[in-house]
Design a protein that fits this description.
Blueprint lengths: L2 E5 L2 E3 L5 E8 L8 E6 L6 E6 L6 E3 L7 E6 L4 E6 L8 E7 L13 E5 L2
Parallel strand pairs: 2-10
Antiparallel strand pairs: 1-3, 3-8, 4-5, 4-9, 5-6, 7-8, 9-10
């Protein structure tokens, strides 16, 4: 079955960096674009970043442009999100899913908490 396992989150001070990973399984990973999403309590999940099948093109939400970078390793069925210059408003639970800016699968992983505070 489709599965996403996010990791790498935690607490960081404003201005700091974190690198998230998402290991995917249960589908043909190299045939799908992939995206990162985030959600805060009381708000809908929003797209943060997306990457095409071979990683040649990426797209980012305006709020993270210039600070976040998404990449993928098709040999490892894994996507990454390098987050730099983190701000308190980046605090959220982060998820990945297949698809370019949308979720191809209804299944979601448990997500990974990112907390940015001093």
């Amino acid at each position: 079955q489709v599965q996403f396992v996010e990791s790498g989150g935690g607490w960081v001070q404003p201005g700091g960096s974190l690198r998230l990973s998402c290991a995917a399984s249960g589908f043909s990973f190299s045939s799908y674009a992939m995206s990162w999403f985030r959600q805060t309590p009381g708000k809908e999940r929003e797209m943060v970043a997306a990457i095409t099948i071979f990683g040649s093109s990426t797209n980012y939400a305006d709020a993270v442009k210039g600070r976040f970078a998404m990449s993928r390793d098709n040999a490892k069925n894994t996507v990454y999100l390098q987050m730099n210059s983190l701000k308190p408003e980046d605090t959220a639970v982060y998820y990945c899913n297949a698809g370019y800016g949308t979720n191809s699968f209804k299944t979601w992983g448990q997500g990974i908490q990112v907390t940015v505070s001093s």
